Amino acid sequence: MALLEVRNLSVDFATTSGTFRAVDGFDLTLEPGDITAVVGESGSGKSVAFLAMMGLLPWTATITSDVMTFDGSDLRGITPKQRRRIIGKDMSMIFQEPMTSLNPCYTVGFQIKEALRIHLGMDRNARQARAVELFEQVGIPAPETRLSAFPHQMSGGMNQRVMIAMAIACKPKLLIADEPTTALDVTIQAQILELLTSLQEETGMALVLITHDMGVVAETADRVSVQYAGQKVEQQAVVPLFNTPHHPYTAALLAALPERATTKHLPTIPGVVPGQFDRPKGCLFSPRCAMATDLCRTTPPPVAGPELGVARCHYPINVPVEQDA
Amino acid sequence: MLKFLLSRLLTFVPTFIGVTLISFSFIRLLPGDPIIVMAGERGVSAERYAELQAQFGFDRPLVIQYWDYMTGVLRGDLGTSFVTKKPVFEEFFALFPATLELSICAMIFAVVLGLPAGIIAAINRGKLFDRALMSTALVGYSMPIFWWALLMIIVFSGWLGWTPVSGRISLLFYFDDVTGFMLIDSLLSGQAGAFRSAAVHLILPTIVLGTIPLAVIARQTRSAMLEVLSEDYIRTARAKGLPPNRVTFIHALRNALIPVVTVVGLLVGTLLGGAILTESIFSWPGIGKWMLDSIYRRDYPVVQGGLLLIAVMVMIVNLTVDVLYGLINPKIRKA
Q1: CA count, 13 A, side-chain hemisphere, A248
Q2: pTM of the entire predicted model
Q3: Are B174 and B193 in contact (CB under 8 A)?
Q4: How many angstroms separate the CA atoms of A217 and A240, rounded?
């Protein structure tokens, strides 16, 4: 049985100027131990979809879906109390900004042990031992002394390690990492990604990596789901995706990778993700697509078969990308 | 911590000098002559006037007068009231406990009601309770104090007869001052019903004086909580699966307390200066009324000394607030 199954998830936000659909028909199936990357630009609804599964969206959000199950429990009709038994324990999440994601008023030790007490009911000594063990696991030097440090006394990379330690404290079955390296220095980024993949190997948990960085995807993920303007536009295993992208958006993202650039200027995707008021009538990507036709501008595209990476496109590409050596 | 306290105490010095300078010069800028005021309707002869001027030192240059005043202050001598001929220091501390007792009760009233109200409003943002509370707070904030006080007296003292109209305690009781706080002294006196009488006398002044602070604290708590509740670390706390009460009171409230403590500190500062309106309406023998009367009488030493002592109290409150910041949020803690 799949660990996480989501079918046709949509999230609408009530705003003063009407409703805004942030996520539109999101599908995802995760098996235990999968590493899946969800890729897309800012505003493509990738974080919102997972925040909806965690139940962390503000009350202005309306969440609808055909299926949303995690580890055998239906997340749709669940009471807040039942959900709190799952999130932070079997399904946990880390966020983009480690410096602001930890409470400045409490020591990092307090914030880790809190989860251990609530979910596992450990006593004082067990919590201390487990917290030290977790800090060692995520590579924080001198764990005993660091436990009594406040977040502002540590670097961003160390704080992200604390966040990871907190997220894996109760041995989750699924860890959702929402742009875990975006706010960090490049040198630290690699360390954190390495830590995440090695923890995944050790524990066998499933890992979702939300990112806009194709480089991160190539290094870590097994499968990739590409999101655009709230919709999934393509899904493939990582190697075929990099070799043969089927959706023009995926192809454009890959072409924008510096290491793939063949010209002096780095290719970019002109324009921005459509917002609430400039949603195109047909294919949502058509205004920015180099290959768009009149059909693309007027009619929403069908979803292609799995052989074409379930690409949401009228004219899926099916030629391998030319790569230099 | 000690270093922090000492450095803060050093900043008291310029504030202290500033306050003496301002109180000294402003009261002299006011038209009106203390000797003429003291003489009253009878008037005073030119010789007697010159004699008095020499006695009070008004015939000497202002700079010298200020120097004399400052050297006195540094020796702990704030001068003697022109009117009562009692030392200012003694008068102040005879009246200050009444102001302090009323201020403390008003602040407790405001905090105990305002903090939870603000928290509940923030959690239920936009719902009925929130709207009702915020409109009530606006009314409370804009209500003229004298009108509110009279309304309370008419309803609770007049119609219902539940509370006395004025004073600190019923005339039936008499006991010596020990602490100056009527609530404590009445208990110490051991007289039956004395504490009850003191408490009942406090109710209306407390409500009247606490109304504006209550409104300010409720609004400030609400907005601080709303801001904190949208922080990333609150999302983290919720992502951990913590119960809502724990998220609100352990994770959010402590962060939201910083602006609330600031406001409470400022409010306490103003209350300690004496609530002139409230004290006048309820015949409360505090320093607000005393200061006002002294200004009318051009009682220079009382105005100068009183302002200085009030300023010191306010500085102590500010220092306490600074120390509290560090206790609440370790990020602000000084080395």
Answers
A1: 18
A2: 0.81
A3: no
A4: 13
pLDDT tens readout for residues B165-188: 877 777 777 777 777 787 787 777
B153-158 long-range contacts, Cβ below 8 Å, gap at least 24?
B153/B204, B153/B281, B156/B203, B156/B204, B157/B204
Residue B86 domain-assigned (yes or no)? no
Task: Kindly state the average pLDDT of the residues B60-66.
Answer: 85
Quick check: is B313 in a domain?
no
Residue type, A264: K
Quickly list H helices, B175-286. 182-189, 194-229, 232-239, 244-246, 253-272, 276-281
Interface test with A, best of B127, B229, B240 (most A CBs within 10 A): B240
Quickly tell me which residue has 């010095």 as its tokens. B13
Number of domains in chain B: 1
Q: Report the residue count for chain A.
A: 325
> Which two tokens mark B96?
């200050």
Provide mean pLDDT across the span B195-208.
86
pLDDT of B263-305, one tens digit each?
998 888 888 776 788 888 888 888 888 888 888 888 888 888 8
Enter the tokens of residue A294: 């009149």
Q: How far is A87 from chain B (nearest CA, A)?
A: 5
Q: Which residues of A touch B (CB under 8 A)?
A: 54, 56, 80, 83-89, 92-93, 95, 97, 100-106, 111, 114-115, 118-119, 150, 152, 163, 166
Domain that holds residue B151: 95-286
Which DSSP category does A185 fall into? -
Best B127, B230, B233, B234 residue to mutate vs chain A (most A CBs within 10 Å): B233
- CB contact set of B114 (below 8 Å; sequence gap of 6+): B213, B214, B215, B216, B217, B218, B221
> Which residue in chain A is spatially nearest to B252 when comparing CA positions?
A103
- Domain assignment of residue B162, yes or no: yes
The answer as to whether B250 is a domain residue is yes
Q: Where would I find the beta strands (DSSP E) of chain A? A: 4-15, 18-30, 35-39, 61-64, 67-70, 73-74, 91-94, 174-178, 206-211, 223-228, 231-237
Query: Is residue A33 a contact partner of residue A204, using CB atoms and an 8 Å limit?
Result: yes
Tens of pLDDT, residue by residue over A171-204, are 889 999 988 888 788 888 888 888 888 888 888 8
Portion of chain A with pLDDT greater than 70, in percent: 98
Domain of residue B262, CATH code: 1.10.3720.10
Q: Measured between CA atoms, how close is A79 to chain B, in angstroms?
A: 12
